From TrEMBL:
<protein>
    <recommendedName>
        <fullName>Serine hydrolase domain-containing protein</fullName>
    </recommendedName>
</protein>
<feature type="domain" description="Serine hydrolase">
    <location>
        <begin position="42"/>
        <end position="221"/>
    </location>
</feature>
<dbReference type="InterPro" id="IPR029058">
    <property type="entry name" value="AB_hydrolase_fold"/>
</dbReference>
<dbReference type="InterPro" id="IPR005645">
    <property type="entry name" value="FSH-like_dom"/>
</dbReference>
<dbReference type="Pfam" id="PF03959">
    <property type="entry name" value="FSH1"/>
</dbReference>
<dbReference type="GO" id="GO:0005634">
    <property type="term" value="C:nucleus"/>
</dbReference>
<dbReference type="GO" id="GO:0016787">
    <property type="term" value="F:hydrolase activity"/>
</dbReference>
<dbReference type="InterPro" id="IPR050593">
    <property type="entry name" value="LovG"/>
</dbReference>
<dbReference type="GO" id="GO:0005737">
    <property type="term" value="C:cytoplasm"/>
</dbReference>
<keyword id="KW-0378">Hydrolase</keyword>
Amino acid sequence: MRVYSEHRYGDYRPLGFSYTSEELLSSSDMFAVNVPRTLNSAVFLDGPVLLHLPDQPQGFSILDEDGFAIPSQTPLFEAEETPRGWCTFNEDKTRYEGAEDAFRVMKSVLERERFDGVIGFSQGAALGAYLCAFLEDPSTHPLFHPRFHPPFKFAILASSFLPADPPLPKLIRTPTLHIIGKNDTHIGAAESGLLVGACEDPRVEFHEGGHFIPAKATWRRFFHEWILAFSPQTIARPEDVSSPAP
């Protein structure tokens, strides 16, 4: 586990999780680069599950703001950038291996520091959904009881799915922002919609791309304004923040 940054995002401090897989090929460092620059002050963590790839892909690096690979002359992964995940699945994604270990990692971080929100991508967003539920009602999981961290004020859950093992204990009350790619072939809109339906106060924004977090200027401004709308020092409300232009 590595902390990418310890700088505050305005008055708020979000916690960021990436999902790493053979399709996504990202560690916390690359996740921090791929998300909008205005979110780079968040604390980004690597998952505890080390994913071993048979070969390192050559000639590709991070993704650009449209989701296309940026050519590189060096291998994608250095030793410290080996892809990691938060758990592994069985074939039909009904049983998770390592989820409890991921919860223990998160508990150790949340016991030491305070965070206002969570930003998660793909499997990392499913983990973020778990944390929202457990922090709202610590009695729903023994690792989070008694309470040691307040509930999050917000959650950004991008390209995610409804976690199943264990199932979410109840509807998530934390205000959530769901980012869904219309052309996401890894986790489709219908699958992401199941997680939206498990939240009491969801906001959904679509982009034209695939399985990535959009990073165009309009999206960076949108994320910035939406997060800051939760600050007690602002009169803006999250629902009043305009959707990002295409």
